[in-house]
Design brief:
By secondary structure, the chain is of the alpha/beta class. Helix content is 26%, strand content 24%. It has one domain (2-199): Metallo-dependent phosphatases (Purple Acid Phosphatase, chain A, domain 2, 4-Layer Sandwich).
Length: 200
């Protein structure tokens, strides 16, 4: 299965059009959106329609720029939320937690950790891979070193070592776009403002 992950589109129609072109030229089964699809809670129906035109399964978590209203509107338009939820694509399990400690809808570290544990617990045990999807990056990661302003989440770090997902896709730190690292048994990938395609 070919999974394309991206994040921090921030309502940039040019970036969305680049994404459309990328999918047109690369076989993709699943698109993962790691939050901040919009900018400052501004809902852009043009972007939603462009993304819906893709013939792929779309899953997302909300970012710190998503309001609760926008989050619900995305779900109403057929985008499948992984926030506190899960999905199984072939034999790959997806689970996640969106929002963060900053933004329009804030979650504490304890809330984020509990959401990740709960959503992971609903997955079958015999899956070939498990992918955790967040907007915020893990505290203590190399990704965190790219910005002195944008802090990581200790809840996500705890979840990495407790749940041991095969992958974590996150965004949030624009300066670290495309950066990959290993934490414990997990490959952590920052997909901010870039397109990362994985054959999983």
């Amino acid at each position: 299965m070919r999974i394309l992950a991206t994040g921090d589109l921030h309502g940039d129609i040019d970036l969305v059009n680049s994404l459309i072109s990328f999918v047109a030229n690369n076989p993709v089964d699943v698109l993962l959106l790691c939050g901040d699809i919009f900018c400052d809670a501004y809902y852009d129906s043009k972007i939603v329609l462009r993304l819906k035109s893709l013939n792929v399964r779309i899953y997302f978590v909300p970012g710190n720029h998503e309001s609760i209203i926008n989050y619900e509107l995305l779900k109403d338009n057929g985008f499948k939320s992984l926030h506190g939820s899960f999905a199984i694509c072939d034999d790959v399990g997806l689970f996640g937690c969106g929002f963060g400690e900053v933004g329009f809808y804030r979650l504490s570290n304890e809330e984020m950790k509990n959401i990740l544990i709960s959503s992971n617990s609903k997955l079958e045990k015999n899956l070939s891979k498990r992918i955790m999807v967040t907007h915020i990056h893990p505290k203590g990661s190399n990704i965190e070193k790219f910005s002195s302003i944008v802090k990581g989440s200790s809840a996500i770090t705890e979840a990495i070592f407790l749940l041991k997902p095969d992958y974590l896709f996150c965004s949030h730190v624009h300066e670290a776009k495309g950066y990959e690292e290993i934490m414990g048994q997990t490959k952590v990938v920052n997909v901010s403002k870039c397109f990362k395609l994985f054959n999983i």
